Amino acid sequence: MHAELGLRGRLTRHRAGDKAEFPFEQRVLDNGLRVIVHPDDSAPLVATHLMYHVGSRHEPPGKRGFAHLFEHLLFQGSQHVPEGEHFRHIQAAGGTLNGTTWFDRTNYYETLPSGDLDLALWLESDRMGYFLPAITQEKLDNQRDVVKNERRQSYENRPYGLAVETMLARAFPEGHPYRHPTIGYMEDIDAATLGDTQEWFENWYGPNNAVLVISGAVEPEHAFERAAHWFGEIGRRPTPEPRPVPGIVNGVAGEAVIPDRVSVPRAYLMFHAPPFPDPGFEPADVLCSLLAEGKSSRLYRELVYDQRIAADVSAFVWPSECAGMLWVVATARPGATATELQERVADVLGELRASGPTEQEIEGARNRARRQLMRQLDSVTRRADLLAHAAVLRNDPDYINQVSARYESITGEEVSIAARSILDPGRGTAVHVVPERKD
Amino acid sequence: MPAPERTRPPPSSPTPPPATPRFDESVLTGGLRIRTARVPRLPEVAIHLVIDAGSVAESAEHAGAAALTARVMPAGAGGRSAMEMAEWLDHMGASIGSGVGYDSARFSLHSLSDTLDGALDYLAEVILSPDFPPDEVARIRAERIDEVRRSFDEPGEVAAQALSEAIFGSHPYGRPVRGRLETLEAMNSSLLRSFRDGFYGGDASFLVAAGEFDPDVFRRQIEQRFGAWSSAPRHLSVEAFHGSAVASGKVTLIDRPGSEQSEIRVGAVGLAHGHEDEFPVLVMNAILGGLFNSRLNLNLREDKGWTYGARSGFSLRRSPGPFVARAAVDTPVTARAFEEMLSEIRSMVVRPPDEEEMQLARNALILSLPRQFETTSQVAAKEAERVGYGLPEDWWERFPDRVRKVDVDDVVRVAERYLDRSGLTLVAVGDADSVRDDLAALGELEVRPAP
After folding, report:
1. Residue A243 placed within a domain
2. Looking at residue B186, what DSSP letter applies?
3. B258 in contact with A at a CB cutoff of 8 Å?
4. What are the beta bridge partners of residue A433?
């Protein structure tokens, strides 16, 4: 079967100057696979990143956690790659690899010496094209156990580990696709079958539902040719319409309380916020930096430094696709209660909404956000990650070249608007984790 | 276009060797060594200032002093209050972290290139003119005490600390770097100041910088600020720990009622960074538990499904650090998981690696080097590691050859030397009612309540 290289994508040519800018080219194979190549020969490395536009929000009722369990299964071999060989090949080449699952997408990525591009493409294309003949009940049962142990280790046996899923279940209504965590729940993980596996693969793992990013010391023409060579023969598959995601504006009054094996309480607040593709996302991010990044930030100064009721406080936005979430999390010092923390946070947010940030604060928050961007852009692996997210969730890979300027351009007015619209007490939902009573 | 050949892995094309940035050295009159490399990738600079003032420098009754000193130093310096220092740093967008380990204290500064000059002013104030305001010392001491208490909530942290003690006993490597509740309570401004004044000095330090900057200008900037930094009156020294783990052959169980999993650890005394056995040990550990496809992980995770992951590693320090094998396992299989772990450790001797395992380990170690030198931050951190452990200048250049030379006999020899059953100690944190009886079969069992 032949694969014709399709659309000629935009080619951005920029020289790396004091604004880091990154050339890339995008083409779409006949089978719908979007391929993005970002050449950078500063190190003899190549990063490949294959992102499927499917995550936990696509899971039907009773299958919570399946997207993530499926991600584990995809490392268990495919028709031409025996079980265990996937990791072995990458590690034997000196590479690294992983896969992650999130509400909106599942990604698989590897970074290798630049001469091993074909190895990554062979492995990724084999599981995109030839996964089903290799899956067995035994592999499913083994990875089901591994995933249940992941849930025990990272959630159930970890202090505060159940707060996030409790928040999601509280803040999103019944039937909302963000209502459950990607790790899922034990009963649904137990219920997964081989039939589910086949259905998930056929529905969501076609080339037309994926973006492949190749970044590093490669010639773009060569990279496109190799991508077409390995992936071109895989047929397009019909992809179902995902469940619609209703916009949620209002929070839930009161708070959920989780007793846990912890020595001090922690308050989690979550506000519905602009999602990653929305122009309000970056101001919300700068707002978080102004609130809780650095010891002079508003929440740190008030809760940790002046009032001394919190041991730490953080604020962050999640780059989710359909509905954004801005989190404020504060851990109490001994003697303080979660309610006290929440009230004090509310005071600080109220003051900010009433009088807005100072120019000095905005400048500092912008500088911190710019410096953190360096961390997102400093390796071919992270740039592949950003390109893939921008392509899949924003349909705009060129975001990688705009993001620095976007952060530099954020004004106090934009942050004020973000504070007033997002930090409305009516949009927030609270979860408190408290020490369980010892009887 | 021919159909792809899928039945075997595609061949590699040649990969050019990485261009490892060259560091230039200069030494200030006070003794401070400065090593700089221009890495013109992004407009950022990564700096590590490393001082021979790790926790081994403190006495047992002052456990935690080294780490607390480094943490308090940015909280008030040169007459500026803690909040003024924070506002200064935050406005530049820079970040400073202090990482204190057993062997050294490290201040890591990450700055945008266009705010570097101010960031260096800030760093110099922190290092040369810390005020140790008593109220800030009290505040940060209280924060640290809270952290120690909260660490008791984390089963992995509880296991790590119990294992350090089971291996090193009262040697400084057996103490928690962050200190203990009772030692922290006693700390005050004058104690921290005298620790800083005793061990901090130009001749006990070096500075590594990498990033987008002009190295000549940078050296002058450092000279202006640190040129007069004098030598330290006291110099850290530590006796290497001798012999095998103090709790060899024993099992320590820390009761955490109701735990869904047990955190299990097998530990032993390892070796120092730069020791002649380092390369055989690296290869041996890669096969045992360093890689995803290691014997431990393939057995406990991929075969049994008892854990999300099992791995092992040697902490290479100035004097022999620990070997640790670890996993968080489903409670009912706790003792069996220990047995499998011990059996895989033993297997390094009784079932020597085949050529495929050797090749996998060697390649993973050698071919992964370019990945570890890609970013500005990595380049600076690797150089700080090399200099801090007194490793020779050609350490990374010779690394591949030295790995290639390791053969199966070397691997078996170091497995026998460092991982003999008689020198291993076991630690578990989990629900004692569920696992106590099974663990008693593995060695003399001591059950302790959670801290």
Report:
1. no
2. T
3. yes
4. A258, A266
Asked if residue A240 is part of any domain, the answer here is no
**pLDDT tens, N- to C-terminus, chain B (451 residues):** 678 999 999 999 888 877 778 999 999 988 999 999 999 888 999 999 999 999 999 999 999 999 999 999 999 999 999 999 999 999 998 999 999 999 999 999 999 999 999 999 999 999 999 999 999 999 999 999 999 999 999 999 999 999 999 999 999 999 999 999 999 999 999 999 999 999 999 999 999 999 999 999 999 999 999 998 989 999 988 889 989 999 999 999 999 999 999 999 999 999 999 999 999 999 999 999 999 999 999 999 999 999 999 999 999 999 999 999 999 999 999 999 999 999 999 999 999 999 999 999 999 999 999 889 989 999 999 999 999 999 999 999 999 999 999 999 999 999 999 999 999 999 999 999 999 999 999 999 999 999 8
Same structural domain for residues A25 and A89? yes
Asked if B391 reaches chain A (Cβ–Cβ under 8 Å), the answer is: no
Whether A158 has its CB under 8 Å from any CB of chain B: the answer is yes
Does the pTM of the predicted model rise above 0.80? yes
Domains of chain B: 24-226 (3.30.830.10), 250-449 (3.30.830.10)
Out of A88, A297, A371, closest to residue B112 by CB: A371
Relative orientation angle of helices A117-129 and A85-92, to the nearest 10 degrees: 170
- Answer yes or no: do A156 and B260 touch at CB < 8 A: yes
Nearest chain B Cα distance for residue A5, angstroms? 12
Option in A296, A311, A333 nearest B87 (CB):
A296
What letter would DSSP give residue B321? Answer: -
- Looking at the complex, does the CB of residue A118 fall below 8 Å from at least one CB of chain B? yes
Helix/strand/coil for B175: coil
Cβ within 8 Å of A, B 117-146 = 139, 142-143, 146
Same domain flag for A142 and A275 = no
How far A183 CA lies from chain B's nearest CA (Å)? 13
Residue A20 in contact with partner chain B when CB distance is under 8 A: yes
Determine the residue type at A398: D
Q: Can you tell me the distance from the alpha carbon of A108 to that of A414, in angstroms, rounded to the nearest whole number?
A: 35
> Among B142, B258, B293, whose Cβ lies nearest the Cβ of A87?
B293
Rounded Cα–Cα distance for residues B94 and A69 (Å): 40
CB contact under 8 A, B302 and A20: no
Nearest to B6 among A111, A126, A152 (CB): A126
Question: Is the minimum CB–CB distance between A16 and chain B shorter than 8 Å?
Answer: yes
User: B368, A95: Cβ pair inside 8 Å?
Assistant: yes
Does residue A185 form part of some domain? yes
Query: Is there a single domain that holds both residue A201 and residue A295?
Result: no
CB of A437 closer than 8 Å to CB of A260: no
How close is the nearest chain B Cα to the Cα of A362, in Å? 9
Asked if residue A267 lies in contact with residue A342, where contact means CB atoms within 8 angstroms, the answer is yes
A residues 278..297 contacting B (CB < 8 A):
293-297
The answer on A100 and A63 residing in a single domain is yes
> Would A59 be classed as within a structural domain?
yes
Q: pLDDT by residue (tens digit) across A149-160? A: 999 988 988 899
CATH of the domain at A56: 3.30.830.10
A369 contact B CB<8A: yes
Residues B398-429 as b or e (16 or more Cβ within 10 Å = b): ebeeebeebebebbbebbeebbeeebbbbbbb
Structural domain range at position A210 = 5-231
B409 part of contact set with chain A, CB < 8 Å: no
Token couple for B41:
């990738």
User: How many structural domains are present in chain A?
Assistant: 2
A364 burial class (0-12, 13-18, 19+ CB within 10 angstroms)? buried
A125 touches chain B (CB under 8 A): yes
Question: A163 with A293, same domain?
Answer: no
Query: Which tokens belong to A136?
Result: 């067995």
